[in-house]
Amino acid sequence: MRRIGLAVLLLAVSGSVGAVERVVSLAPSLSEIVVELGSADLLVGVLDAGDRPPELKDLPSVGRYGQLDMERLLSLKPDLLLLWPGSVGPAQREQLKRLNIPTYVAAPHNLEQLTEQIESIAVQLGRPERGVALAGDLRQRLESLRQRYRRDEPLRVFYQVWDRPLYTVGGGQIISDALDVCGARNVFADLTLPAPQVSVEAVLQRNPEVILAGDQAQLEAWKAWPQVAAVAQGQLKLVTDKGLERPSGQMIEATARLCQVIAPDR
After folding, report:
1. Spatial contact of 110 and 94, defined as CB atoms under 8 Å apart
2. Are the C-beta atoms of residues 252 and 118 closer than 8 Å to each other?
3. CB-CB contact of 193 with 170 (8 Å)
4. Is the overall model pTM greater than 0.85, yes or no?
5. How many angstroms separate the CA atoms of 152 and 114, rounded?
6. Cα–Cα distance between 190 and 65 in angstroms, integer?
7. Chain-centre distance of CA 196, in angstroms?
8. pLDDT of 98-120, one tens digit each?
9. Omega before 165 cis (within 30°)?
10. Distance (Å, rounded) from C-alpha 241 to C-alpha 63?
11. Based on the number of CB atoms within 10 Å of its own CB, is 182 exposed (0-12), middle (13-18) or buried (19 or more)?
């Protein structure tokens, strides 16, 4: 059924007039998707947050994460905005609504939604066939990873985002789904917030078999609790890959690297 719906979209776009020519991306991940679709030529402005892809290094900036320069945005005369809600504050999101500029909102909660949104963005850009090709390749890669790392009993994993206070990822956060692909289960998957604050006691109670963190000092601190399975088994793993933080096509390979960290023997 999804394939039939996509075919209708392809026909609609191929027969349409007035394709977009001036796109502004309001999230680094969305800018990256446009580049992955071979459509960087349509971008006239981007929201900055970290390093840009080389293809976009000379593009005008419309502000930084959480601080949109509305005047600069309007001066670029966009005919399409790509928006991740978290990159723009609520007040400015309301301003954008009142401008009546066509807007595509993307906030994937899992990797399948990400591939679907890549297809949808390609349709918005008037280049649907590129989305079909890229999403197809990504789905094949995902299925290969699922088969390779599948376990009858998933590993219990605590993914640490920060230590003071202690933050993790909830079940609706796309990184939680990446753990599933790797044959693991987020021990806080039952929490609905994308980045909930948790206590050390809660972590001890859920007794993860693997602890992941982006800083070695954060991992070393867990050795104060040798009763935790991850500590007892020496499964304190460093994850420095920033690709997991950007839900674009590259996140699939970032997930593959995550799987290697969690289960190098596979």
Report:
1. no
2. no
3. yes
4. yes
5. 26
6. 28
7. 17
8. 999 999 999 999 999 999 999 99
9. yes
10. 25
11. buried
